[in-house]
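Collaborator request, handled under Task 6.
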Amino acid sequence: MQVIKAATQLGVGLAHEMGDPDTLNFRIETGGTLIVALLPIPHPDAAHMPVGPTSPEPETIDHHVGHYIVTAFDLPDDPLQTEVTMSIVTAALVQCSPAVAAKLGDGAIFHRADLFATVVETANGGIATEITVDITAAQESADRMSFLTHGLSKYDREEFYITSSTTETGALEYLMELVRWMVTDPDKVLPTGDTVGPTAEKRAVVQRVPSPIEGKPPVIRLDMDTNETVSQPPRAKKRGWFRRS
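Structure tokens returned to the collaborator:
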């Protein structure tokens, strides 16, 4: 079976088991069971979920006609390993299906299917923070935009809120590096008032401010390239934390 082969190549052994004829049923070699169900209807929340830089275009989501639900039971009591396992089996399903997007169960956004599979493969059996911690984008003003993380709190980390010029190309990549750093090195801290950045010339002051989402804990804010002079019109960006009201 293609899913078993794909999952094995990514680092999780699966064995097919008999079960409900309307689902795919597997035993996970490291412990637990996996059930995959195909529902021939659009995902009920997809059209109204937040979007981010790794999300499919709205038209892609609007035109999808079905969705898979991947459910695991009795996994070993190791939250990080559970995320790795679920990331891998989901990526394996993506590789063997016409899926256009994927997310983990607690994900805030859908990621493009090809990107989801690629980052899981690149993680080589480790945590793929690009899809376990989601990032949404919003327009702050005519010449500035922002990125907000969703999911660092499950690692007992503060979420990041980064603003940058709309012409800046490195802010998102640096944010992804920060996320990976904070997840993989639990001893790292960012004291308020310190400066961080991708280079010695591009550094921002660490601030702790209220979350832009009401009711959420405070976030770490970094205002990148605040002294940059914008000499060209800003490119069009997705507006707001949500696709539609």
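The cover message to the collaborator said: "Helices lie at 2-10, 58-62, 79-95, 113-123, 129-132, 171-184. Residues 228-245 have pLDDT under 50 and may be disordered. Please let us know whether this matches your experimental observations."
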